[in-house]
Every structure is written in structure tokens, then in C-alpha cells.
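Suppose you are handed a protein chain with no further information: no name, no annotation, nothing but its sequence. What can you learn? This example shows the usual starting point.
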Amino acid sequence: MALTKARTGHSDDAFVRSTRPIRLAGSLLGRRRHVCAFFNSRDDEYRVTLPFIKDGLECGDRAFHLVGSARQKDHLDRLRAAGIDTLTARQTGQLEVLDWAQTYLAGGSFDPDRWLAFVKETFAARTTDGYPLSRIVAHMEWALEAQVGVERLLEYEAKVNRIWPRDGNVAICTYDLARFGAQVIVDIMRTHPLIVIGGLLHENPFYVEPDEFLEELREREAGSRVAV
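A reasonable first move is to predict its three-dimensional structure. Written in C-alpha cells, the prediction is:
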């Protein structure tokens, strides 16, 4: 299955970046490049993500990995076992592995708008630094931390769709099905145009455009306040 879209108003450079063949979980990505990936185990996760990560590094793309401190050693060990020279890649800046405390939860809380501003600034800078694309792999268990603002996860996942269709970069948000509740998983699915489930990439028929989803969230919050 090849997931492709027609050209619609992009600059030439952005269009070339957003249509360059990138393979993930048995398919080619098209213009939509915000993906949620559901897994039952770490082994299942890395079976899907390692080929994507390795291919990106070999193509000269930048790898930007958001991994909790407790998992960073295991993450890097798995990359090395797949034949990735993590030391060189990190020394050159092509591979960045950052803790949630440096990124999502900087300052001890999560603010979707602050994080989105950082995302836009960082990826634009790396593109001009010579990396044609950024490939982001984000482990999303940070949203289970006892930190202010983590309840705004769905708001963030909806808003980020205003970025990904434009720049050609790829983001994979990985979710452990054993750790997130069923209702959260359903809503997470609705904020991603593409999903990986069962190890395969699919276009998501349940995806809701960001403005519509955010309006739904506002209505839910208003209803909750009335109920209280």
C-alpha cells in the first residue's frame, strides 16, 4: 500500500521533502506524516521503528528521539544492535536522544503551545543545518507522569496536525497499549491521520481534523464544569 497525496500549494522544496519515499511498517508515507503507533511490547515497537530509524540515518535525515531517562540505555542498546553507530551519530548531531524533562516536561509541566513553538523552531533550524528531514520518534509515556498539564495531551496531538502536513518531517508517537486506558487510546487514534497497529501502517478512517477535534474537547470541558 502506498499512501500518497496530490500536490496542493506547497513550495517546491517542501513538496519534494514531503513526497520523498519514506517506508514505515510496510507502506510508503505520503504527505500526511503524523503517525500514532500502538504496541503491546517493546519488541513489537522496535521491530517497526528500527528499520525506519536506520533508513533515515543512512539517508542523511536527522533523528530526534524523545525517550524517558529510564529507557534511554535500552533504546540506545537496541539501536546499536541494529547496526547503528550511535556514538558518531550523536557526536555529529544527526541523532539526538532527549529526556522528557528536557522537552515535553521542561520546567516541570506540559504546555502544548510552548512545546509546539519549540518543535517548529527546532525542526526549521535543523533543516537549514543541512538535514533534509527530521524523523521524530516520541515515546508518549510522559503523559502518564504526575506533572501539571499532562491532561492536555489530546489538545497537543490535535494541534500538531497543523504542522506536519506542511514541512515533510515525520513524527511517530508510540503508545504502549498496556499503559493507556481504552478511552484515551480511542481519542489518540482520532488525532492521527495514520496509525500503526498490528505492525502495519494504515490510513486512519477515524481521524478528525484539528479544529473539529479541539471544538469537541472544549464542549467536553464545558459539560464537565456544568456537571460539577
